[in-house]
Amino acid sequence: MAKTDVWKPGSFTKNFSWGDRSRGLLELYEVIKLGFGDKVEDVPRVDFRKRVERSGRPDYIPLNFFLFNTVKDGADFVVADELVFQAITGSHSPRFDKLALFAFNFSYVGRWKGAAPSQRRPAMWANNYIIDRVATARQWNTSSVSADDIEHYVKSDRRYTGKTTRKLATNLNYLYLAGRLVELSAPTVERWWVDALFLALDRLIEDRKLDRLPTTDSEYPVLLEDSKFAVLSGKQSFEKELAAKHLLNLYIACGGRDRFSEDAVKEHTALTIPDLGWLIANDPDPDPRPKGAVHPTNPRILKSIPWACAMLARYIGFEVIDADELETFDTEDFVRTHTKSALKTLKDKRISPTMGVEQLMKLTRSK
What we know:
Blueprint (H helix, E strand, L loop, with lengths): L25 H10 L7 E2 H10 L5 H7 L2 E4 L2 E4 L3 H8 L4 H13 L17 H14 L9 H9 L10 H13 L12 H20 L9 H7 L2 H4 L5 H16 L8 H11 L4 H6 L8 E5 L2 E8 L4 H6 L3 E3 L1 H6 L2 H18 L8 H8 L3
Antiparallel strand pairs: 1-3, 2-3, 4-5, 4-6
Helix pairs in contact: 5-9, 7-8
C-alpha cells in the first residue's frame, strides 16, 4: 500500500481553469470523455494524454487526482471504472460532480511508471480533512469549510510537506464549492452515493491488484470499512447500511468491473443463470443504453448499470427499468404504483383484513 504518513500537494497547487463555479466540474467531465474516446474501456495513458493535449486542455489534475491508473504488460493505462462509466454514458449533472468529488476525496489513483509512492494516494490532505474535520468533528456540517479552515488544518499537521499551503487551500475550497460538498452530507440514499459505492469497490479492488493481492467477494464489506467509505460519503444512517448490502449483491452479481465488458457479462450470466444464460447471448437488447436497477424495498436504491447486466440484476431481486425511465424516475410514483399492484394482488386472491380499524388502533395504542 502507498505511504500515507507523508502528504504532498503535487500538481494540485497549479490552476486547472475550472471556469465559473456554476459550471461545476464540467471541465473534468469533458476531459474524461475526450481522453477515453467516449468508450468505457481502459485506455493507454499516452493515448489519453495525446487526445487531451490536442484540445489544449491540461490533463494532470484529471489523471493524477480523479482517475485510476495501472500498469499492464509494461504499459501505463487509465482504468475505466464507475466515474468513467457515468461520464461517458450520461450527461453532465450535479450527480456527476458529487461522484467526482467523492473520487477526489477518496484519493485512490493507482500507479504509473515514474510515479512517486505518495502519488498513489495523492490527496490525503483532503481525505483526512474530510474525515477529521468535516465528518467527525462537525458531523458533516459544512458551513465552516473555507480556504482559511483548510489552510489551518494542513499547516497544523506534520504530515503535510508542501512548501505552500495557501494555494492548495484556495484551490481545494473552490473545488468543494464547484463540486457541491455541501450536498454530500445527506443521510438518505441518493444516486450519486449509490454510484460512489460501486466506484469505491472498483478502486479498492484495482488498488489491491497493484500489489498482486487477490480479493474475494466476502472481503468487500471489510475493504469498504477500512477505506472509510461510509465516513467520506456523507452522514451515516441505517438506510445507507441496508442499501449497501443490496448494492454489494448487485455489484457481485454483475461481475464487478467486468460489468463494462459485454463478453464478460455474457459469460458471467451463463455461469450464474445456466438455464437463461443463452438468452443474453442470442437476443441482444435493441436499446443498449444503460438500464436502471431499483430495489423494491427502497426505490432510492437506484443504480444505472450496463444493459447486459439487467438479467443478473433481476435474478437477485432488483427491478429493471429502461433508459428513458431511468432519467425521469420518480420514487413516489414507484411506491404508489407498487402499492396499487400489491393491493390488487390481494384483492384478486380474495385476501381481506380480519381486523377492523378500531381493533387495530387498540392493538397498536401504547398502554
